[in-house]
Amino acid sequence: MGFRAAAKTGKIDFLAMVAHVAAIVALVVAGVSARAQTADQGWLRYSGGHPHAAIPTSVRALSSDLKEQSAVRELERGISGLTGAKANADAANGETVVGTLSEVRKAFPAIAAPAHLGPHGFWLKRTVWHGSPLVIVAGANEHGALFGAFGLLRRIAINEDLTHLNAIESPALPIRWVDEWDNANGTVERGYGGRSIFFENGHVRDDLSAVGEYARLLASVGINGCNVNNVNGAAPFLTPDMLKGLARIADAMRPWGVRLAISVDIASPQKVGGLKTFDPLDPEVKAWWAAKVAEIYALIPDFMGVTVKADSEGQAGPASYGRSPADAANLLAGALEPYAGVVLYRAFVYNNHLDYKDLRADRARAAYDIFHPLDGKLLPNVIVQIKEGPIDFQAQEPVSPLFAGLRKTNAAMELQITQEYLGQQRHLVYIAPMWKQVLDFDLRAEGRSTPVKAIVSGKAFDRPLGGMVGVSDVGQDWLGSPMALANLYAFGRLAWNPDLTAEQIAAEWTRQTISTDPEVVATVDKMLMQSWPAYLHYTGPLGTQTLTDITGSHFGPNIEASEGNGWGQWHRDDAKGIGMDRTVATGTGFAGQYPPAVAKMYESLATTPDDLLLFFHHVPYTYKLHSGKTVIQYFYDSHYDGAAEAARLGEEWATLKGKIDPQLFDDVQGRLEYQAAHAVVWRDAIVQYFLKQSGIPDARGRAGHYPGRLEAEDAELSGYSVIDVKPWEDASGGKAVACQGATSSQGDRMAAAPQTSDGASASGASLSCSAQFAYSGPAGHFDIAIQYFDLQGGVAHFTFNVNGRAVASWAADATLPSRRPNGDNSTRFTARGIDLKPGDQLRVEGTPDGNDPAALDYIEIHPD
Ligand code: GCV
């Protein structure tokens, strides 16, 4: 799990270290790539130090069922790993048995078993049988027994006292799926953990060992379904060859009770079947789906169902024939019904060509406007899959009103485990606190308490089905960042029990994954809990959504990218104010989609909570929040606070040195350094943008003033030329320098004709440019941050000199988005512990490579 996007730091002896570090890195990388991808790299480490005499190591199943056998293998492996005792050491010391409740009753008739367990639930009991300890892992069925085995192992791993173990659990939600947006060519849409574990070159991979390990991880937190392919471009997944491959995937997941689902393209009868139409009401189309579904079940008898994205973002849909989503969903539901399969029909249907000038137009309205009228018209095996917010996985949104708008229809909540808009796993963001806010939000439907968790469990409106679907997008490096696995863990735990708290889940995960040392647990949990608020503070608070490049990477800052286009992720900022008026009285009417009590709250400025103010109201920058602060001052403060909070995450992690696995320590430390630096990029972009837009200064004097910063465009340049960065707010002062032959206003002819360091034309061998800064501050010991742009398509090199002596050198080899200099790839190298005195000459030399023109934004000097 090496990290390729780290901000870099260096000491004065950096050059000497380079060769040594390179050798170590090569070894580590070789080791990592040779290492098999296993669930142990997640939270199933089962590392020692948990002596549990209470749990017999002799384990057996009461039947030959596949899941019970998996449970036995897992218990043997887990108990011996965790306790250090040899598996099956001595049956005379008692035994741990796994079975269904009825098998247990039969085998141990004298033991009083619970009368009933909820579907997929389990009972864990420690007792004595014929004088020896007996631990019972009993499931409502075999699947429940498997969940029980993992439930027991979790209790051992987190050091619960099991002497009087007697616990009953069952999942609150029937549908607990992960969705993967994998493409047949092996790429993963919005995946940040490497290439697909399922597909490559248009086929299912030969080696599916990682799929089995993934299913093991999923089963350990109670997940029961996995949809393996992208909701976009799903047609190729219904070809006979692909279906055979999918059957192998189902085989790999089956021992763990994780059932296969796939995304289907509603136009498949035409695209795959060669029919003239895919009209959902056409009898031939109906027959085609019936035959296709029969073909699937012949290969995969426990196939769970399909997910559909239709009439959305370029995907074909029933609207082509003037039909409704209900027509399409019921068509598929009818075909799946004989096999008890389900249809997850996504409510993410909207027009992405909205008229920005129309102040009544509102993408947030779409799901409710389209699906609410269909309530009661969908077959019982259809579940409407609703994104948790009305827009699209933003850093913060209100809860989708559609959850309360479907009372006679099954509903599932879709959320993202992969961090598309939340820092793409390069930033630490533990999302469970946000998911908890959504699950606990009381929509007050029918004037009574109806929190989202009660709706998606089916309880609130007495629905037979419902659930949670997490877009996970794992790859061959799982989620890409070891800390991001806390989100996958949390998703499963919340889908099993939405009443757990985010803190509880964080503590469980940390204990299983990092350490049970109370100090470590406290520190990591604190960091996890701080991470989402910090991210919100530096990326887009008060309900503005993530102020990122919504038409591109979805990663770095780009405030205007949301505006002026048809995508409808608008926040409508201008010189006077900001926010979308979504009130019924004067705006788009979105607030009126909520049940009356909630609608009333959002309709009024006075009762809308500050953190969603700008989602519901357009206000002047001088509008005073409930806190008494103006909106603009809150923007300044929250961005400075957020960047400081991001820096603090790294400081907190630093206290764990020597207390945790060194490789994990180094990996996460590199990521947190990068995050702290990128939070500054975010802070500066948003602060300088709104300073210019509003013309209102920061009462605390920070915005637009950067102590210790020296701009590259003001330096003595040799070879470098000044460029306008786009968007302007992504560079300090809007400008940077690039080592290129001709100045490009967009920065898009990068490195076309680099010049030699003395400014000669680019025909020689050593092509580089330099920016020289004269130091005029007091003498002292300093850390010097060099802010540069690390573009895709080349590995530029930099050297930092003080008075002609090279003190550090590094390669711009991170894997950040974009081929142009902007906030996606603005990053920094920090040279630490540098002695400076007035008059010293600081020089950055950049050597371009390929598309990367060694672009430089500024240097910043701070006492170390
Ligand atoms: C699979 C967002 C993402 C898309 C994704 C879409 C969806 O728009 O950026 O990559 O497409 O959501 O959920 O369908």
Explain what this protein looks like in three dimensions.
- The protein is an alpha/beta fold.
- Helix content is 30%, strand content 17%.
- The chain has 20 helices and 29 strands.
- The strands form seven sheets. Strands 7-10-11-12-13-14-15-16 form an eight-stranded parallel β-barrel.
- Helix 6 links the parallel strand 10 and strand 11.
- Helix 2 runs parallel beside helix 4, helix 8 crosses helix 9 and helix 14 packs across helix 15.
- The longest helix has 33 residues.
- The radius of gyration is 29 Å and the shape is globular.
- 4-O-methyl-alpha-D-glucopyranuronic acid (GCV) binds next to loops.
Secondary structure elements and their pairing?
Layout: E1 8-10, H1 14-34, E2 59-61, H2 66-83, E3 95-100, H3 101-107, E4 122-129, E5 132-139, H4 142-157, E6 166-169, E7 175-179, E8 199-200, E9 203-204, H5 209-220, E10 225-227, H6 240-253, E11 259-264, H7 268-271, H8 283-299, E12 305-308, H9 325-336, E13 342-346, H10 366-371, E14 382-387, H11 402-405, E15 410-416, H12 432-440, H13 452-456, E16 466-471, H14 485-496, H15 502-513, H16 518-539, E17 577-578, H17 596-603, H18 613-616, E18 619-620, H19 631-654, H20 662-694, E19 709-711, E20 716-718, E21 721-724, E22 735-738, E23 769-774, E24 780-789, E25 797-802, E26 805-811, E27 826-836, E28 841-847, E29 856-863
Parallel strand pairs: 1-27, 2-3, 3-5, 7-10, 7-16, 10-11, 11-12, 12-13, 13-14, 14-15, 15-16
Antiparallel strand pairs: 4-5, 4-6, 8-9, 17-18, 19-29, 20-23, 21-22, 23-28, 24-27, 24-29, 25-26, 25-28
Bound molecules: 4-O-methyl-alpha-D-glucopyranuronic acid (GCV).
Residues 181, 189-190, 231-232, 309, 313, 348, 392, 420 line the site of 4-O-methyl-alpha-D-glucopyranuronic acid (GCV).
